[in-house]
Design brief:
There is one protein chain. The protein is an alpha/beta fold and about 700 residues long. It folds into three domains: about 350 residues, Aldolase class I (TIM Barrel, Alpha-Beta Barrel), CATH 3.20.20.70; about 150 residues, NAD(P)-binding Rossmann-like Domain (Rossmann fold); about 130 residues, FAD/NAD(P)-binding domain (3-Layer(bba) Sandwich), CATH 3.50.50.60. About 30% of the residues lie in helices and about 20% in strands. The chain has an eight-stranded parallel barrel with strand order 3-4-6-9-10-11-12-13, surrounded by five helices. Helix 21 links the parallel strand 23 and strand 24. Helix 15 packs parallel to helix 24. The longest helix is centred in the N-terminal third of the chain and has 20 residues. The structure holds adenosine-5'-diphosphate and iron/sulfur cluster. Adenosine-5'-diphosphate binds next to helix 15.
Length: about 700
Amino acid sequence: MSESLPGGALPARNPRYDLLFEPVKIGPVTARNRFYAVPHAAGMTNTLPHMRAAFRGTKAEGGWGVVCTGYVSIDPSSDDAPLPYATLWDEDDIRSHALMTESVHRHGALAGIELWHGGGSVMNRASRIPSMSPSGTAWMPTHVNFMGHQRPRRMDSHDIRALLAMQAAAARRARTAGFDIVYVYAGMGYLPYEFLLPQWNHRTDGYGGSLANRVRIVRELLEVTHEAVAGRCAVALRISLEELRARPSQSAPSEAHELVSLLGDLPDLWDVKMDSSPTDCGPSRFSPEGSHEPVIDFVKKLTTRPVVGVGRFTSPDTMVSQVRRGVLDLIGAARPSIADPFLPLKIDQGREQDIRECIGCNICISSWHDSVPVRCTQNPTAGEEWRRGWHPERIAAAASAARVLVVGAGPAGLECALSLGRRGYEVTLADAATELGGRLRFETQLPGLSQWGRVLDWRRGQIDRLANVSVYRDNRLGAADILELGHDHVVLATGARWTPLLYSPLEVPDGELQGANVLTPDDIAAGAKPAGPVVVFDFDNYYMGSALALHLARGTQPVSYVTPAGHASAWGIMSNEQPQVHRALADAGIGLFTHSRVTALTGGELLLANLFTGAPWRLPCATLVVVGARLADEGLYHQLTADSAILRQAGIGSVTRIGDALAPGAIVHAVWSGHRCARELDATAPQCALRRDAPLAAAG
Ligand code: ADP
Ligand code: SF4
């Protein structure tokens, strides 16, 4: 599919958005518009150079004026392994990054590189070089990713000179690799940031004490970077201002104000952000679009240099407002540029309604924690551009005149039907329910999850415009119906169901509690009204347990939350949700009990056992809601495939399960599964074909 409308006609850009397409001068270079894909981790290290180049290049193709890398280490003394970080240490690394700059330049965008030294936040697990920080303190010593047994060493004056030399050398390599914008990164707990805060920086030399001293390292890093790129690249400063904004200053409204005044026009670009991933990349459950504004709104007043910032911006009206109100010059985006790499082009072409808006679920961020290439709930092609050849806007035309029946219109079925429809197949999409959306019908009504409805809204809107996709609601199909319909291919996206299975000491779902007062999320979705006191027992560990507890606490009955894990929504640490889940449970008056498993429900009491000691304890409980294991709804699949002769007779060439009906997962899995099925229909390549990326061979 091309980006144009049928017949090639494109609607004109709404003049209201012309402002967003003005060029912006950044030091010696000029961005073609105000759309700025900021640095963000994407799980593609130097071991995956072609995937990385294609992922970033696709954003340039989609109209972003600037496309940046993720964090790139300037020296082996900053080693974040096993997390997926990039390096720019030598000639091979230059060639690896040059693939990305070429790919970005090919589509007319500028390429930016976020040079990075992690200081006391890195463990240097692979290089085994003791890490360093201004005063020998470590970052997040109780956060599992950052726990280590070796504390950083205190930097001496030699280390400071060495750091400046590392930055300068890396900046020269960045220039050779073809980058247009080179960063000094003073944010998020990394080395230059560690100098800015007195909690980290106890130094008594010229780099500690007053703010002017604490900021000196950043000033010197900017100076050596300018010198190294010799006017051929812009020098950007990325800085976290949240903590500094909360610190009083004697000469300014806050230390953040004082710092921006001190550095003023030294950087060619200010890239301003928050201090920790959960506040910088807040999940939509708890953080609205534009949530950074109260912290960074003053920066433009204190510098003549352009300012870029983020805020999960997907609405062009909000973007225009940011510029008109003097908050930002460039609209920064990490997540919205992953969810829709073609966002700028769609605005340019007057196709705002086609923007696949980020839902703020932070699955993309969890990919970094998992050390794998980026995954996105909304955009199944993210990370697959090179290895699978998936383009976010184009898809191969149908390879046959086959008619396809898709059963189930949840995330998997909707994505599959849409992508098959785009390919040109004749598609029938049937669902038992009146409303499309599958699990999203209920889940988007849970506290904080309304924006997840964009998964449904976008697909429903796109399908509505395809004449070759017919949608049938209120149609529960049995095996006999499907055989009678006799489509060439049948895709089953019938979902999964929650079970009341409990949690055994072997850490597997085991043993079921039966009874009218034992419910699952499916029962609540179907309208069950649990009597209180209610206990939610969660070992699914993602959002459902905490979201359901918050939902039930909207009523009058007392609600408790019990989990075998050490935290509520334990997996939510991966998606930046966990800290705010804890706050939300506390605010709602929900009792939180960890390290416990349920053993029985009897006489208005829930019997529990400590996970480690087995010590029994009790909680008052009239209704238990178990949020644990899900099982695929695969009955239809087994009925249909039991006898291949009957299938053949009916003219059905294939029956494929997708999404939760195949393997229950998160929405991201369902969408990806539906997309893959559509891509691979009639494909000649083997089912799992994917190109394997590899580091570039050593030079010479
Ligand atoms: P996924 O996340 O894999 O897309 P969901 O559970 O969200 O799965 O959606 C499954 C959808 O399939 C639901 O909307 C459900 O109504 C529908 N469904 C399940 N069985 C049938 C059936 N036999 N006929 C039609 N629709 C069905
Ligand atoms: Fe947005 Fe979720 Fe995609 Fe990340 S994974 S870009 S938060 S939709």
